[in-house]
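chain below, 264 aa
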Amino acid sequence: MASTTWKRFEIKCAEYLNKKFGRFASFVHKGGPNSTVSDILVNTKSGKRFFIDAKHSPAQCGQFVLKPNPSTKSFIYSPENRTPINQNSEKIIEHMNALFTEFEKPGTKGKNIIMSNYNEIFPNWIIDAYKHKNVLYIITNNYIIFPIEQFGKYFEVSAKYRIKRSGSSNVGKRRMLDVCEYILHRYDITSIREEKDKLFVTSTELLDNCHFSLNEHEYMFSRRGLEYEIRKLSKTLNANVIFSINLRQNTGGISENDFIQALK
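prediction:
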């Protein structure tokens, strides 16, 4: 249910922005499970293009992979990360290196990162990561809108180092037939549609986030509108620094007029 909440929220935010500010810009929903794509593309009438990210609090908000090196008792910033290393991630790594044995084997429950100046370092990492994706504004609960630079003013940010599966991929042509035969015998599937190497189905059952295993691979049903896409889950388990956010109380966003001026 949690995943469907943020999906609905992204769509509702795009609808709200178009209804409220459509005279000045178009707001196109681009988000979804791919975290490398920001949520809402803004095309202003003046020709400016940028992104707004939708965050329904509480939520996770960014991560990066750190690999422990037992021989040097230090953590390595993985080259797999899409976000470049910056001074904030360097400060987090320095803190974790000093406590290497505490963080070396975090498990799936993880280990909380508690450090001085976390209330500056954690939000600043998120700000830098979003700026790297050309995100200029955040929209959150009750359609509060604020500039990305003010992230720490609006959210309390915590961080945890824990093992997490690295992602998912398309079913693929080679596995398509086996997967189709398997799900037809075990779920109430009403239709199947192939799109290149992707597989989409409809069902009378509620299958969002339902997992199954076949031929040493794990798969998941992921809702896409009225259909479910079958996704193959990665076998790679990486240890990530993962940020979580909670909206602070009594926070109002920027005024409608200020946001309109930003769109002109």
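The first strand starts at residue 25 and ends at 29. The chain has seven helices and 16 strands.
thats it, cya
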